[in-house]
Amino acid sequence: VVSKDEVEPDALMPVWDKTGNLSVRKGSSSVPMPSNPEGLKRRLTIMANAMIMLALRHTNRREFTFVTPGTFEKYKAYLLGEFVLGLTAKNENNETIGVPPWPLVLSYEHAIRKRACQVMNNGGFVDFALALRHGWGDCVTKERFFSTPLSLTVKMTAYSKHPNGQARQQDTAAGGVWQKDKNDGKASGKGKGKRKGKDKGGKAPGKIRHRETVDKQGQSGRARGGLGHAGVQQTLKVLYLFAGGKRKQSVKDYLLKLAKGRGFSVKVTELDICRQKTMNFARLHVRQIWLSKISAGEFDSVLSTPPCSSFTKAMWANKLGPSPMRSYDHPKGFPWLQGSRKLLAEAGSVLADFSFAAVRAQAVRAEASVLMEQPEDLGAVKSGPWPGQRPASMWQDPQHSDIAGMPGMASRAFHQHSFGTDYPKPTRFLVKLGTESHPAFYDGLPQFDSAGNYTGPLPRCSGASRSLVRKRGDAGFKTTGTAAWPPQLCEWVAQEIISFHIGEAGAEISQAGDSSSAPAIATGKSTTMEAQAAPAGDSTSASTVATGAGTLKVVQASSTVEPKFRAGFGSPRQVNTPGKRSSYHDGAGLASPGRWDPDRRRFQISAAWVSLRKDILEIATRHLQDVDLQRTCWNMAVRKQEPFQDNLVKEVQDRIAQWCVAEGSSWSKQELLTSADGQPFLLKLLSEVLRLAGDPDWAFLLQAETGLPAGITVPLPRTPEVYEEQTSWRLDLDAEAMGEEMALNYSSVDKHKDYVYKFFDEEVLEGLMIKMSRAEFDKKYQGKSAIAALALRIIHDATNKVRVNNRIKCLDKQRMPGAKEKFYILHYYKSRGVVLFSVLGDVSKAHRRFKYLEVEHGFLACQVDPKDDLIYVNKVGTFGVGSASYWWGRIFGASTRATYQLLGPENPAEILVFADDIEVIGPDRAGRRAIVLTSLFLVAFGNPFKWEKQRGGLKVDWIGLHTDYTVYKLGISEERCAWLVGWCTEVEVSCSVWPRVMAAGLGRLCYTANALFWERPFLGPIYAWVSSVGGLDRKVAVPWAIKFILSWIASGLRADGRLQEPPSITGEAMELFRSDAKAEGGKAWIGAWETRFSLDPKKCRWFYLEVTRDWAPWAFSKKDPNRVIAALELLGNLAAIMVFGDSWPRDRRGKCIGTGISDNLGNTYIVAKGMTTKYPITLILMELSEQLRSRGMEMSVTWKRRDENQEAEDLTNLVFDKFSPELEVKVDPLNMKWLVLPGLMKSSELLYKQIVERRASKGFEA
Fold first, then answer.
1. Cα-based distances in Å from 182 to 206, 231, 842
2. Where in the chain is the domain with CATH 3.30.420.10?
3. Which residue stretches belong to region Disordered (predicted)?
4. What is the value of pTM for the model shown?
5. Are 299 and 361 in contact (CB under 8 A)?
6. Model confidence pLDDT, tens digit, residues 255-303
7. Given 3.30.70, 1.10.3470, 3.40.1350, 3.40.50, which CATH number is that of 235-462+483-501?
8. At what angle are helices 1125-1140 and 1177-1191 packed, to 10 degrees?
9. Is the distance from CB of 858 to CB of 781 less than 8 angstroms?
């Protein structure tokens, strides 16, 4: 804290940022610490004045509301009075023998303000004045930062003049570390100095002086992390886990070098089995010992670089080195590993978990620093022996994102080439080392596209001269020696550690721009107020564009890739779909609490929020005359009418607005309750609730008051904290795309012009459109316009001819919930025995409820009749304009997130948002109460619902999906099921069909397969056939195989196939059998043995079969059975299920969950995905799916190497000496109960021959 009068004016300095742009910043100034009480008084007065001015300027902030000059006068009196500075120790003669050192007073003063900020961050106090009083009255703070260090300095006092005139310890104005006098206690000699002869205290063995090292910010002692107290030798304790062997230059060397002569010492503990044989962290007791030391706070800083030998991507580059040991799908190691490779993979997993545990234990301490290093996760391999495969990485562990979300932690990627190497070596730090990042660092978690390819944040390195991939002819491995960090990186890490704990002066960082001017509150680290967000101009980034009518600022969320706001604790929900694991999405964005389980959601729980929720519940129960809102919930499910009277909604709005004002809103109550012009929403009220909740995307709602960009001339924003990045678009996007000025309407409009005119006139009266003549239109928009074609359902086609949508580039990817989210909810609550109830809602004219910017209205025009002179211009969101769904989804998502915060932990609910449709699922009694409150809050924010479409109950239809909460099953609605059955039947009896009709029906079948997994295998042949005839503009004959498949699907839907239980396989399943197949010399065999009870073949049932033409003609469709070996391997799995499966154990639901072992890796993916277009394996997959469904089984296939599956291979080789003859199961394949295979054999062979011929005729490779 310093006045401008005390320092030189800041100089302007050029600075290069990490993007390569040159900017100009102010340099820094430094001033000495206060040298006497008057100097401290002056600094505290400056601080008080600054806070009072901030309170007057930012009236919406509550941090400094109660700060007055009187607050700091009392603080000065406490510090400089008899409680601190005036404290004296006297002997029996009443002589002063000890007083507090002046540096200790300054250190204690800093500790008081630091404690005040900590209390504010933890939600204890909102105002700094109250927190400051708590700080100087806190006994622990005084004992730790004043009383204890004072007692330690009493024995080392050398008296000199006290600032008050009292005798006190000799020290400089700055104070600091203890040092020996240069004369080593000897007398100064005659005529030397003021003191002659012997010292009054006798000959001292070494007189001690106290001097303090001051950093550039004027902070003393433990400026950031803190290492001790004034007057005590500071020792920085660093623990380096997995330090490796001794090296020429290391972090330890630079730490010792930087500490030399700087007034503090460094103690580095380096642990590695290469250095100490006892440091084998693969042993549990060794890990526990060091974890307990870290948790006890024995180390100021912890570095961890766990071995990455089994995680490195270099193994996947080629086959010139060790082969991979683990992958993204097998993060703990491939299940087929054996011997030393298996032990190595297991040890790598253990050490990775230990490293994450150590980092977490260190990160929970606010004053501690920590760093973990590993190679960057670069996603799928693009070339080499395994293209498309995704290697494993420690950063894929959910612990990574969990720890990265902890306070102060960051995940940063960089190239080691930036620190002086000639190779790139992409690397990632999980780190807490101050607030500033190195220019080479790119913040944010690794990002990938749908195929697993790396998309950022780290760009490709262009300056490196050599690669670390081993090539043929290389004498050794190029990665040898690169495990050691380059010297520049070691030096940077050492500087950051010392800067974090000692201050920048301790590290003597000479780089320009590293130091900053003294802050108003010198706490060392920047203080974050999580409960209140900064004003809109401070906390949001913006892109500025010229609009012709001035400058428009497009407000967007924080530009950082890594979300600062996490709506829950730990990792979000993960959902399982066939062959894929993905994130859970509820439609309200990444910042929605609904993405976490109810007990892991993060809510505001301060007294103000608790009081607000309690008051709203009291208001609702009083108006509805329903104590726990249960009756109201039942009524909402059956009565298609508005459940809330206007006076109830108004009182709830009044209470929320009143609360916002009390919490420091800059808007008055009347302003908060004023709906936006031409819009139904209370945007200011919604924005304030989100802001006070800490939501990252509240500022754009204020811009929505005047209008949002359509993305045509004003670009759409990027909001990484709420949505993923959109990386691909269906249209050929071009910001300068110039289409035709006008497009004629579709013929469907010509027959209903009167209806369209009437509809548009109503829209004009409602303020949603403007009606003008063609001359007025041309004069107003001057060519910056487009008149789009209309379709009957009043669809504004902004793509055809006018190419308006081609200019709109939506940068945010909005994900909506579907079957996988519903399956997760069903499985989650079923496993807990919780009863669910659901209510559905629909927003009226959802996409037309927000305004577009007036500068882009000209591109939203249409005309009912080209012969008419009237032009209708849309002012609001328009169906058919690419950005309409984006802005509606963002506004409704904001309403949903605000609703979650108002519900709080006492009212658990699952809110699913799909465009303008919403489903609110309530668990048990509290959840049904939450359903009512959810609707009430959404209405209070101004969302207009179609009450005639409201419905609910224990069985509901939503977005084409039917959910039966009584039996926890999900499927398709009766209407959709009836349509599909009718369509399948129609195609089945037809001789020919249009390809586009087949494509449309296939799309609906594909949507159905998201909920009905048994249907997926049957879609493979249909996909293959439709793709072969897709380019034909005529009717085509329907093959008999397609008719048979459609008939089977229809019969399954007619029976009990409309609903399905959620998948139950959540981890490793029990191994039930091992199988194999063999094809040789024009013959083929399959065999399997049951491993449910034992892995001893002598104790297990077994069988073998020769595959012959009489029961498996498809195996010889390509002449040599060896060409269909994958289908034969899958046939072995199928036969094992049919032979052994009837006796396998079921759970209490009658389910059998297990896995089979095969040595065909491709089949594991086919079974997991449940679909393939390849013949003849698709036939076996269909039969397998039906056999599992009819038997109530869920089955996976696990791959093992051929040498690990030797017993099954012996069966196909007709070697039976390992098996007991008594346990052989005789199998007659002709009498086995096949379901779909016999009917598909001949017809499918003909079908695939036609597909191959048609593709060849179209130029495809057959």
1. 9, 19, 84
2. 1068-1231
3. 161-227, 565-595
4. 0.57
5. no
6. 888 888 777 889 999 988 888 877 888 888 788 888 888 888 889 999 9
7. 3.40.50
8. 20
9. yes
